[in-house]
């Protein structure tokens, strides 16, 4: 919200006499009147304007697209489309402006107003890389000895790939297990049974199991 407040202050100086409203963590506005005003909102906190906005300006695209998240691009696309839909129709003078590199796929999809094209492209790339939803991932996070113990007792599918380890918080590590989408249930059963074995042995060190985590590394 600090960035939004600073943006509101700068706009207030640039457009003296025009009311500036903010919507975000400190206070979320549901609606704003259709009178002339500038509305600065954080993603997901955009109020509905009576009669629609005359213009929607999408800023700080790099902050959304550069997140270390497998779904960063699709989440950016969702937020942009939701915000852009608050503008008036083009026939009524509504405009949507995005400040971003025009060659990026989410930007191209927004300019074309074609989320289907973006989804198809994103799915093709994930198939090529072996990422969800084309494949299924399970991350195992915990102390090294605990994760190794779980993997040792797990009867994993023969097609399972074990990737890692990668550092996690404090003295923990993460291992990733990948299988084709059609073998996901088999992987889930194997890990569930392995967790049961560790529980029966009264293992003291926990292992966090996540299916298709947003952050793979």
What does this structure look like?
- This is Primosome assembly protein PriA.
- Keywords: ATP-binding, DNA-binding, Nucleotide-binding.
- One of its GO terms (biological process) is DNA replication initiation.
- One of its GO terms (molecular function) is 3'-5' DNA helicase activity.
- It is built from 7 helices and 10 strands.
- It is an alpha/beta fold.
- It folds into 2 domains: 2-127, no CATH class; 135-211, Alpha-Beta Plaits (2-Layer Sandwich).
- The chain is elongated.
- The model has no long low-confidence stretch (mean pLDDT 89).
Structural descriptors:
217 residues, Alpha-Beta Plaits, ATP binding, nucleotide-binding
Shape: elongated
Structural class call reads alpha/beta
Q: What is the tally of beta strands?
A: 10
Strands of the largest sheet, in order across it?
Answer: 8-9-7-10
Number of domains: 2
What characterizes the major β-sheet? 4 strands, antiparallel
Multimerization status: single chain
Mean model confidence by pLDDT: 89
Tally of helical segments: 7
Strand content: 15-25%
- Rg calc: 23 Å
Taking pLDDT < 50 over at least 5 consecutive residues as the criterion, the unreliable ranges are none
Distance between the termini: 28 Å
The helix/strand series, from N terminus to C terminus, equals HEEEEEHHEHHEHEEHE
Helix content: 25-40%
Keywords: ATP-binding, DNA-binding, Nucleotide-binding
GO molecular function, one term: ATP binding
Organism: Winogradskya consettensis
Protein name: Primosome assembly protein PriA
């Amino acid at each position: 919200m600090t960035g939004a407040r600073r943006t509101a202050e700068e706009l207030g100086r640039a457009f003296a006499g025009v009311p500036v409203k903010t919507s975000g963590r400190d206070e979320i506005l549901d609606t704003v009147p259709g009178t002339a005003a500038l509305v600065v909102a954080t993603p997901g906190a955009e109020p509905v304007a009576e009669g629609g906005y005359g213009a929607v300006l999408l800023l700080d695209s790099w902050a959304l697209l550069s997140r270390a998240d497998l779904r960063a691009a699709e989440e950016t696309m969702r937020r942009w489309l939701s915000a852009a839909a608050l503008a008036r129709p083009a026939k009524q003078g509504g405009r949507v402006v995005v400040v971003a590199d025009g060659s990026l796929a989410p930007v191209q999809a927004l300019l074309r107003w074609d989320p289907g094209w973006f989804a198809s492209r994103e799915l093709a790339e994930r198939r090529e890389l072996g990422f969800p939803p084309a494949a299924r991932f399970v991350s195992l996070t915990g102390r090294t000895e605990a994760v190794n113990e779980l993997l040792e007792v797990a009867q994993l599918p023969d097609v399972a790939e074990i990737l890692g380890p990668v550092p996690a918080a404090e003295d923990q590590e993460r291992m990733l297990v990948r299988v084709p989408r059609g073998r996901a249930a088999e992987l889930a059963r194997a890990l569930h049974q392995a967790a049961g074995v560790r529980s029966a042995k009264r293992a003291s060190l926990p292992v966090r199991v996540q299916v298709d985590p947003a952050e793979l590394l």
